[in-house]
Every structure is written in structure tokens, then in C-alpha cells.
Amino acid sequence: MIIEVKNLIKRYNDFLALDHISFSIREGEIFGLLGPNGAGKSTTISILSGLTGFDGGEVLFLGKKIGRNEMEAKRELGIVPQDIALFEDLTAQENLDYFGRLYGLKGKLLKERVKEALAFTGLTERRKDRPKGFSGGMKRRLNIACAILHHPKLIIMDEPTVGIDPQSRNHIMQSIKELNRMGSTIIYTSHYMEEVEEICTKIAVVDRGRVIAQGTKEELKSLVSSEEKIMIDLSSVNFTMVEGIKKIESISECVVNGNRLDVVGKKGEKNVSRIIQVISESEADILSLNVEKPSLEAVFLTLTGRSLRD
Ligand SMILES: Nc1ncnc2c1ncn2[C@@H]1O[C@H](COP(=O)(O)OP(=O)(O)OP(=O)(O)O)[C@@H](O)[C@H]1O
Q1: 8 Å CB contact between 175 and 168
Q2: Where in this chain does the record put each ABC transporter domain (predicted)?
Q3: Which of 18, 42, 193, 211 for mutating ligand 1's site (highest number of atoms within 8 Å of CB)?
Q4: Exposed (0-12), middle (13-18) or buried (19+): which is 130, by Cβ within 10 Å?
Q5: Is there a domain that residue 128 lies in?
Q6: Domain-embedded: residue 239
Q7: d(CA 114, ligand 1 centre) in Å
Q8: Is residue 102 part of a domain?
Q9: Are 148 and 113 in contact (CB under 8 A)?
């Protein structure tokens, strides 16, 4: 395990911001912390980054216990904070030089890494410009470049796509996958479930300072529903076909809507293959077939009774 968080407690005066949070992250994972505003994501990240103390529980980083307000192994960490941290009056390259030195890089290696980070974040051509004139997305990309110069084992990103243009967003999503392929473990916080679904291999759903569910997206989705809905558009529909589908053991419902069938069945029972077999015995052609997958939004709604964006 690269990180183990056990029963983490954090209070702000009388307010319990983290209420016995526990999760562990394996090397090589893209771990998502998904939750609405105020759930406790930034507080958790801040503790993991060694920036904030905590009131109870334990955090292990690479097997070593982390104290209340410090972090021994900061060199193995790359942090992309929610609030962009750049020097507006230094050029992109000078910012990178500065952060590289903070991580102990110098000389030829520093030069190489700055070049690499600029190329990786698509900022090579803007290296001599100051972030003052950058778009929000470019600033965010520069912030990411600053965090990866020293090739950290663990990269922590706190809502890196909030308020940026779609092009930068896509760039960041691709970069995260690439950094992961190159060997970094990533912690990614977001209240955008689509992003978490797209990139995370493991997800902890947090709400009101507690982890309310965790697992792979498939595991989380299976909490919500043991059924799947299959929608089929056909060239024609006939009685024999519908009755044939209804007779399949795992199918509980088959509703006809013009030339479309909405079929509900128990998950994991090869419903699609069985339905296709029945249809192929008729004259009809299948024009399209879709299996509706429950979303993480549905998971959150089921577990809390509220929407993620409330
Ligand atoms: N310095 C602070 N003093 C008092 N309360 C705080 C402080 N920082 C955070 N909180 C409270 O702790 C709770 C968790 O906040 P946190 O920023 O960790 O949530 P979050 O999930 O990161 O939300 P967001 O998506 O808005 O960043 C919130 O209710 C917040 O108001």
C-alpha cells in the first residue's frame, strides 16, 4: 500500500470535518475521492500532503506513520492544490526552475526535467510567458508541471478541472492517465462523477466527513442495482418475439414501444446474448442495442438521498 488512512478525525473547533475516514491506496492506482462540496475532500488531501494536522487516527505513507503536522517523505509527493500556486511575475520556465529547486533538483537534471514537464503539459511554446496572461486551464497545467518535475511516486490533485476550458480539461485527463502509465499513483478529488468514472480505478465516495462507500466503479454500481435495462430498436416487433424474450428466466420485464423493446433483467445472466438469440429466430433486424449502466450519481443518490451537486 502506498497510503493507508485509518479512522482519520479532523475538527475545526466544534465542527467534525472528518469523522473516522478510512481507505487505502495501492501503488499504481488512480484513486478518486468523490463527494459534494464540503464533504471533506480538501481536508483529507491537505492532511495527506502534510499541510494540516489531524485530531485522531493514523496515516501511513509507504508504510511509515505520518506525524500530525509534518510529512517525512515529501520528496515522493507531488501536490496540485485546489488554489493555483504560481508566481505571476515569473515566466512559466522560471516557475518550474523554482519548484524544481524546492524538490532538490539542480544543474543538468533540473534543465531536463523542466523541458520534460513543459512538453508533457503542452506549454513548451509558452515557456517564456508569465502566467499572468494565461487562461485558467493553462495556469492549471503549469501547476501540474510544477508538481511532477521530481517524478513523484504519488501525485495528489485537488479538483484540477474546476472552472477551466474543455480543451485543457481533456489535456489534464489524458495527462493523468499518462502519468499513471508511467508509474505514478494518483489521488484525484472531484465532484464531477463523469471524470471520476473516466479515469479512476478505485473510488471512495465521501459525504459529510465520512466514506460512505468504496471500491471499483463496478463494485459501487452494483450496490445500486442488481438489474440492467436493455433497449433494442428493431425493424419490426412481433408477439412471438416478445413472448420468447419474456420466457427467458432472468428477464423480469419486456415492454413494447413501437418498434422498440425495453427489457429489464437480472445482471450478469447473459441477457443480451439470450435476447439476440430469440430475435434472430424472427424476421426482424436489430437496428441498435444499448445497455443502460447505472451512474455514480445514482450510487450517491441511493446512498445519501441527495444529488452530488445539491
Ligand atoms: N479552516 C477551516 N475552518 C473551519 N471549517 C472548515 C475549514 N476548512 C474546511 N472547513 C469545513 O470542513 C468541511 C469540509 O471542507 P473541505 O474543504 O474539506 O470539503 P471539500 O469536500 O473539499 O469541499 P469542496 O469541494 O468545496 O472543496 C466543510 O464543511 C468546510 O466548511
Answers
A1: no
A2: 3-233
A3: 42
A4: middle
A5: no
A6: yes
A7: 33
A8: no
A9: no
Q: Please tell me whether residues 156 and 288 are part of one structural domain.
A: no
* pLDDT tens, position by position, 137-155: 899 999 999 999 999 999 9
Q: Do residue 174 and residue 78 come from a single domain?
A: yes
Q: Among 15, 18, 211, say which to mutate for ligand 1: greatest number of ligand atoms within 8 Å of CB.
A: 15
Number of domains forming the structure of the chain:
2
Burial class (CB in 10 A: 0-12, 13-18, 19+), 295: middle
User: What is the pTM for the complete model shown?
Assistant: 0.80
Q: Tell me, yes or no, whether 216 and 234 share the same domain.
A: no
User: CB of 171 closer than 6 A to ligand 1?
Assistant: no
For the CA of 39, the nearest atom of ligand 1: 21
**Per-residue pLDDT tens for 200-232?**
999 999 999 999 999 998 888 888 777 888 999
Q: What's the ipTM?
A: 0.95
Question: Which of 5, 8, 12 should be mutated for ligand 1, with most atoms under 8 A from CB?
Answer: 12
Q: Which structural domain range is residue 71 located in?
A: 3-87+152-222
